[in-house]
Amino acid sequence: MTGNTFNNQDLIQFLQDSPTPFHAVLSMSQRMQAAGFVELNENEDWSLQPGGKYFVVRSGTAIAAFIHGVESSVDHGIRVVGAHTDSPCLKVKPMPSKLSNGYQQLSIEVYGGVLLAPWFDRDLSLAGRVVYRDTSGALKSALINFKRAIGSVPSLAIHLDRAANEGRKINPHVEMDVVLGQSAQKLDFKLLLQEQMQLEGYDNIAEILDFNLSFYDVQPPAVLGLNNEFLASARLDNLLSCYIGINSLIQADTTYTSVVICNDHEEVGSRSEVGAQGPMLKDVLSRINPDPQANQKAIRRSLMLSVDNAHGIHPNYASKHDENHGPIINAGPVIKFDACQGYATNSDSAAFVRWLATKGEPIALQSFVMRADMRCGSTIGPITATELGIQTVDIGLATFGMHSVRELGGVKDGEQLNNLLMRFMSTETLKL
């Protein structure tokens, strides 16, 4: 290992710079380049060198970075870390402009399993990618980020809904259009986007053709708690894991082959060219070992850590947890289990991680399994294991408020997971 550093302030900056998967992948790409990783193009031949450091981006929202180890990956396997770049949010519809009682609004659609209530009364901004035709007729794209608050989803006053605190159901189509301003005219949304693009340095815009834009809360990440023990931020699920995966790879040595892949679309089922059910990881591994038999042998000697957040035991809702499997924030990484394969962990892969945690200074590990009368969520772990035939363990950090507009984690846990991933990337043994 070349070093062992983890910095919560740098994590906070990454979270702040990454309001959408497009921005997260750009930020990770810049970090990889600054650390000496070479960007590859999937449309070209790759000439990989032992000890080389590389990364590839697909469609702007998924990234795979890897070290092509000096030692043969066919003989020593591949250390794979997986995470995802997307988070539940409110996305702008293709024809979003509305005018209601003199208020300009944008209609939204819900992306992923959003916890809707916390999105009300937030200071919202807008970011994402815009595709346009320039004045020469060329097709181009631009990343934009308004950064400032431009809208809100106001709550209905309790005087107009006395049952608001009695379990009222939220209808996102009716109740969650974003209010942007007041006018007698419907907003020309494409003109607004063009003006923002020009503010961000894009010129020669002839026509905006399409866009992929998400609202986000402008409140920055923060360390809080009486003893500064908590980290509050949007998109901890799962940019926290993306950051730690990339940070670990940057610090890893070049002895063994290690891959970090951050897919998109995990929150909606992973079924896309950039999702875990798509071929991206398979494509990258086949480039590392072009011979099919060698590639298959390498995969069967490999292990994947699917890194995604875990549900910390909530002090106000402790009954929602199994009493023996309630992870505590700041008490170490959490191995996640599910007998129905909602998580891909098995006894062998879990035992390996427990063994790894004892190699050197001990790393505390926790276990999570849902109550027997509840079902767990999903991760990229089982999907990748199914697609590749790679042994996998699901692991992550305990958080509160998963899928809220603002989630809560611990300031100590990131370093522990970072240490574990670095140890994983440097170990010669991947099987017990």
Q: Work out the count of structural domains.
A: 2
CATH level 1 name of the largest domain: Alpha Beta
> How would you state the average pLDDT, rounded?
96
Largest sheet composition: 9 strands, mixed
Question: CATH superfamily of the largest domain, please?
Answer: Zn peptidases
Beta-strand segment tally: 20
At CATH level 3, the topology of the largest domain is Aminopeptidase
Terminal Cα separation, in Å? 22 Å
Low-confidence stretches: none
| Adjacency order of strands in the biggest sheet | 1-2-3-13-4-14-18-16-17
Structure in words:
By secondary structure, this protein is an alpha/beta fold. Helices cover 25% and strands 27% of the residues. It has helices at residues 8-17, 21-34, 73-76, 172-175, 189-199, 236-251, 280-288, 292-300, 347-356, 380-388, 413-426; strands at 38-39, 52-58, 62-68, 79-84, 89-100, 103-111, 124-134, 139-145, 178-182, 205-217, 222-224, 230-233, 258-263, 303-307, 310-311, 334-336, 366-368, 391-396, 398-399, 407-410. Helix 2 (21-34) runs parallel beside helix 6 and helix 6 crosses helix 11 (413-426). Keywords: Aminopeptidase, Hydrolase, Metal-binding, Metalloprotease, Protease, Zinc.
